[in-house]
Amino acid sequence: MSSPARVATAGEPPPPVVSDTRPLRSELAWTAVGEPEEQYLTVSTDPDGTVVVTGEVDLFSAPTLEQVVRAAVEGGEGNVVIDLARVRFMDSAGLNILIRCFKPLDEQGRRLVLRSPQDTVRRTLELGGITTLVDVET
Questions:
Q1: For residue 132, what is the domain's CATH number?
Q2: Residues 6+ apart with CB under 8 A from 24
Q3: Are 40 and 56 in contact (CB under 8 A)?
Q4: Which end of the chain has less Cβ packing within 10 Å, N or C?
């Protein structure tokens, strides 16, 4: 049985809060505490150059997505294709990454192609105005 939490009295500083909920980082994946990596975010590149994203793209995991997509933008020719079929959630941090990766492609006459987003992700892309900038394949 755990001991009851200590409560600070007047004039006494509050007790320290010990908690570590930061995501853990591996090569190209983030994991939330208590979740297997593949359930939070995994980003890989197929042999044909398609960036395959699985899980959730949010403030904590977006840098991992950016790292892989930027490598595809800088290291390749032609369009950059991102497969979103297995992305369950994307917030404004993910939209920001897509916009920042779209700009250099557009300047080079290349396209950013988003493949097979789920309905919830597609709605986020539409609300964020991304669908007017990039190609979305179903």
A1: 3.30.750.24
A2: 30, 31, 33
A3: yes
A4: N
Range of the domain at 54: 43-137
CA distance 58 to 65: 10
**Which long-range contacts link 126-129 to residues 24+ away (Cβ below 8 Å)?**
128/92, 128/95
- The span from the CA of 52 to the CA of 43, in Å, is 6
**φ/ψ of residue 88, rounded to 5:** -90, -25
* Average pLDDT of span 106-116: 96
Per-residue exposure over 86-112, b if at least 16 CB sit within 10 Å of its own CB, e if not = ebeebeebbbebbeebbeebeeeebeb
pTM exceeding 0.90: no
